[in-house]
Design goal:
Heat Shock Protein 90, 5-stranded antiparallel β-sheet, alpha+beta, rod-shaped, Beta-Lactamase, 3 domains
Length: 512
């Protein structure tokens, strides 16, 4: 195998990833952003709670220090009020307990029902945050069976600065308690407890956080939705352009730009690409029309000069016998043959437009055709074989055009056959289609040349002894007829490498 064929083989096995699938993969990757954002919000929420709890604990420590250094202030309510004016005693309380755990001083009302509800934007984020269930994991856990109040006071009376939260019957935290020991002249005489409800402890800071978090969530959702809609729109436009390009050629390979002239919803690179493709196909169509009209024009324009030249040669041949005249006659016949071949393709394309496919009993038709081909050739040159289980098989075809296609294939096989074996004609039935094969012994097809032989002006023949020119029109015409029948025409080397097989694959017609 040549290097070029190896490269083609690698390219054929290269996995494909459509633009739509890439957009889906991109959107799936972007869909992880909300989860990452949610995790980030939880961590940030935890940091805010920790900071607020630290401030709460710092307040208790400061109050305990003030009580230690200036005990006379606790008898002066107005002076104490100035020191702790930043504390909202409608939703918090401070009390002092002695070393025996008895309460000696209380200030504030903890559960006065006057808190305003959070805005709906903040309530959404608050609900989502509470779903995680790990809002207050930074606080130490108590021993089983201990109440928050009792355990917190015990820790403070033992000389520790401690903090915990009070829970309701559903184990939901409702207030935060911070406690610190009180000393006088270096001796521990009691504890100071500062308790505040969660809705006031974190109200201002967390309300803003919840509000911003909800807005950020909505913004992220809008961005993802916009990306999804844009990707879907872009993908659909590209797919529509691809389908329009596919439909911009007739079954016979002629450009048809009617599908490409549709307008795009807005101007961008895709609309420019559509116009560029439309302009390219328009120029290609003009060039193709010129090439197709050229043989007919040449035939018309050269008809009279060729006739005059033929008549002159005939007169000269009657007057004298000259070998040069014979060569001139052969050159003239060759020129007429070339012009006839060139005009035959365009004439066939025009005639295909007027034909219609109809249900055809393929087995009986081809049996008669194979018999006539075998009888028209010397004995042993052509053999026929029909392998069908249902003699009444039908295909959608035009009988005379189908025979014309097979004529081209058989003529090509006879020209390349080296007569080591007969040219074999086969009709094979499969579940969905019928296969018509023309097999000859002879030179193999070059690697990678299997489909190129059906292109116009492509031939792998060498000039014969009469220097006859082959333009490769025969198999090109066979391809046109196969396209008219919506059939698949292919060529490949035989499995035993003895020659070449050309196969026509026709779908079976089944009446409803």
């Amino acid at each position: 195998m040549s290097m070029g064929a190896a490269i083609v083989g690698v390219a054929m096995t290269k996995p494909t990833l459509s633009i739509r699938r890439r957009f889906v993969i991109l959107f799936l990757m972007l869909s992880f952003l909300p989860f990452l954002a949610y995790r980030f919000a939880l961590d940030l929420h935890q940091v805010l709670l920790q900071n607020q709890a630290d401030l709460h604990l710092q307040t208790v420590q400061n109050l305990a220090l003030i009580l230690e250094t200036r005990p006379q202030l606790w008898g002066q309510t107005s002076a104490v009020g100035e020191l702790i004016s930043h504390i909202d005693f409608t939703r918090s309380s401070i009390w002092i307990v002695n070393q025996q755990g008895q309460t000696t001083y209380v200030m504030g009302d903890l559960f006065t029902p006057q808190q305003q509800p959070l805005p709906w934007t903040a309530q959404i984020s608050q609900f989502l945050i509470k779903l995680s269930g790990d809002s207050f994991t930074f606080l130490p856990s108590m021993k089983p069976g201990d109440s928050a109040e009792k355990f917190t006071i015990e820790q403070a009376l033992n000389g520790q600065i401690y903090q915990h939260y009070r829970t309701d019957q559903a184990s939901n935290p409702i207030s935060l308690m911070s406690a610190a020991p009180i000393y006088q002249q270096g001796e521990r005489v009691g504890a100071l407890i500062y308790e505040q409800t969660f809705d006031t402890l974190f109200s201002h800071t967390l309300e803003q956080f919840y509000h911003l978090l909800t807005l950020a969530g909505f913004l992220l959702a809008l961005v993802l939705l916009g990306i999804l809609l844009y990707a879907r729109s872009l993908s659909l436009r590209i797919l529509r352009l691809r389908e329009d390009v596919k439909q911009s050629f007739t079954p016979y390979g002629q450009p048809d730009i009617t599908k490409l002239v549709r307008a795009e919803p807005y101007e961008d690179e895709i609309s420019e690409l559509r116009r560029a493709i439309s302009k390219m196909l328009s120029r290609l169509a003009n060039y193709e029309r010129y090439l197709k009209q050229l043989p007919r024009t040449l035939r018309h324009e050269l008809h009279n000069p060729i006739n005059r030249l033929s008549a002159s040669l005939e007169l000269l041949e009657q007057q004298q016998a000259n070998p040069q005249l014979m060569q001139a006659r052969q050159a003239l016949e060759q020129l007429e043959h070339i012009i006839q071949q060139l005009s035959e393709a365009s004439s066939l394309e025009q005639s295909l437009l007027s034909h219609r496919r109809q249900p055809l009993k393929i087995v009986s038709r081809l049996r008669a055709y194979f018999d006539s081909v075998v009888q028209s050739q010397p004995s042993g040159v052509v053999s026929a074989q029909i392998e069908v289980n249902h003699p009444q098989l039908s295909v959608l075809a035009e009988g005379f055009l189908l025979e014309q296609l097979l004529d081209k294939l058989i003529d090509n096989a006879l020209e390349f056959n080296d007569y080591r074996c007969p040219v074999r004609l086969r009709l094979i039935e499969t579940t969905q289609c019928v296969l018509i094969e023309v097999i000859n012994c002879g030179p193999l097809l070059p690697i990678g040349f299997e489909q190129h032989i059906f292109e116009g002006m492509v031939s792998i023949r060498t000039p014969d002894k009469h220097q006859q020119t082959h333009l490769g029109i025969g198999l090109y015409l066979a391809k046109l007829i196969a396209a008219f029948h919506q059939a698949e025409l292919s060529a490949f080397n035989s499995a035993d490498q003895s020659g070449v097989c050309v196969r026509l694959k026709l779908p079976i017609f089944r009446a409803e």
